[in-house]
Amino acid sequence: MLKTRKHLELLAPAKNAEFGIEAINHGADAVYIGGPAFGARSKAPNTVADIARLVKHAHRYHAEVFVALNTIFHDQELDGARQLVEQLYEAEVDALIVQDMGLLELGLPPIQLHASTQTDIRTVDKAVFLDQVGFSQLVLARELDLATVQKIAAATTCNLEYFIHGALCVAFSGQCFISHAHTGRSANRGECSQECRLPFTLEDQKGRIIGKDQHFLSMKDNDQSANLLALIDAGVSSFKIEGRYKDLPYVKNATAHYRLLLDGILHDRPELAKSSHGSSRFTFSPQPEKTFNRSATDYFANGRQADIGAFDTPKFSGEALGKVSKVGSDYFEVDTEVELHNGDGVCFFDVHKELVGLRVNSVVGRKLYPNEMPVDIRRGMAVFRNRDHAFMRLLEKDSAQRKIAVTLRLTDSEQGFQLSVSDEAGLVGTAFCLADKQLADNPAQAQQSLRDNLAKLGNTDFVAKNTELATRQAWFVPASLVNGLRRDAITQLQLARDAAYQRPPRRPASEPPAMYPEDTLSYLANVYNQKARAFYQKHGVKMIAAAYEANQELDEVPLMITKHCLRFSHGLCPKEAKGVIGVQGTVTAEPMTLISGKDRYTLKFDCKPCEMHVMGKMRKSVLQLAQPQAVHFMPRRP
To answer: Is 382 exposed, middle or buried (0-12, 13-18, 19+ CB in 10 A)?
Structure first.
């Protein structure tokens, strides 16, 4: 059975097992992590043994662990991928996040499958197809608005997952080939070189400069804090935080932030429920703006917005402090009301518009004494804080504790005492002991002492919510007897919880096989092996082009397809305006050209779906590098 959409899942990233454990402690209902190979973040690998350790911790709270196997595979890699899946299944991983449809043709163990965002789920037809071929959860395209999400929810039965926080890829996921075209490092193979974060010059059709040395393909970071309830009402059940490359403070801060927001919704909406057990308490107040971000946007959730780009810098500039009011020989003053601390990190844009960072050794009033005095700081420059030292110190320590609320009930019999401990899911652990009962000299004091002793759950996963004394008399019960009863009952409860946890099942594909919405696939479908080709043929596709990585598309093609539109962001959208008057006359809308070094990209605009295509060719220098290589992945069994 699939979880109903009434169960909400907060899904956090894990660079490694330690990060995943902390994400669980800070309230995540599930975490996603990369394995030893085949993940879309090749620089964040993890052994199966480490993943198994994370799984063991997560399952204590009935939380889940998903492993990202979301690259496309060479034919030579398929056997290694199948072996890895078998090991992950043995490690009790709950689900795989996949892009390559060839995996569905490998006879995998019955592990649940989630369709990665790289499968490019932007339409109802595509979502319905994936819903029918065996996927239990769909990671929707980041660009989808609430209305489209609602249509997909109405047409499908699987769980819907939506990115709510973190970095935004400017291209539709799975539809960006710039990195491969220039370096041989394929984003679909987990090796994106992030060329979208580079500075570019933007020209109009007559070669006039519209903008120079700006990061025109760099987006602000996603923040759906204000849209959570609307997303729930649209049909989303899994809320995903981006960041398998991010540091631990970011994971803690973002997870805690959304945990509190979702808990508030759960409190107000009793028809909704968490998908895991336990509640987290934090030693800090979450403030997502204080860990890495490029400012915030809700992207296209509520339709196209005017200001979604982080054109000035792809780095983390942080919170605005104020302007420089004075510059001394070894200090500078900032006109700010923000309380600063020794050890803070501050930054400013220099005369070349580059972000310059420095560490503050000491703060005296509004005077900042940096570790090294910058040579080009000037009066009137805006200053930002990108590291709040006091806040980061809180996150560097143990900053959360997750506990499962239980009710303890003590009863008596002729032979002794019985203690039952029941958790929030209704699971029960019971212990009994023989004892000679003795009436308490001071009943009120004895019963309070008994309640206090029973509630001492210490380093266990549990916390006492209620303690009930259902005995016929007020007995004196020695502390040693209480401790033994409590210990044995908790052990039994843990065993009951372990036995009750069931991994989500693999969903069967519909029969007869569902038909793919189209009968022709271009290189954009990322078909890179014969098993993937066989999958699509089985589902009615007649013509299938090879993936871009197979070097079949060497002429100028879209290297990136994006909802971001540079015409719109410069006031040149034909739906909004018919041109603007600049210093050199009317700046026309199309074509535009992006320039980075010797590379020139023609920008084509498809106004019907409201998309921008960044056109380009593969560099000749990387043709040999980009040839498919046989990778034989033969992991050892744990």
So the answer is: middle
Cβ atoms within 10 Å, residue 261: 19
pTM: 0.94
The per-residue pLDDT for range 578-612, each reduced to its tens digit, is 544 443 444 445 789 999 998 999 999 999 999 99
Radius of gyration of the chain (CA): 28
55 close to 31: Cβ distance less than 8 angstroms: no
Q: Are 27 and 9 in contact (CB under 8 A)?
A: no
Q: Looking up tokens 């099942």, which residue turns up?
A: 505
How distant, in Å, are the alpha carbons of 328, 329, 331, 339, 367 from that of 361?
15, 15, 10, 15, 11
pLDDT interval class at 121 (50, 70, 90): very high
Q: What is the pLDDT of residue 555?
A: 83
**Distances, alpha carbon 427 to alpha carbons 244, 472, 589, in Å:** 34, 25, 64
Residue 584 exposure: Cα atoms within 13 Å on the Cβ side: 9
**The pLDDT value given to residue 88:** 98
Domains of the chain with CATH codes:
7-168+221-282+284-290 (3.20.20.70), 315-396 (2.40.10.170), 400-500 (no CATH)
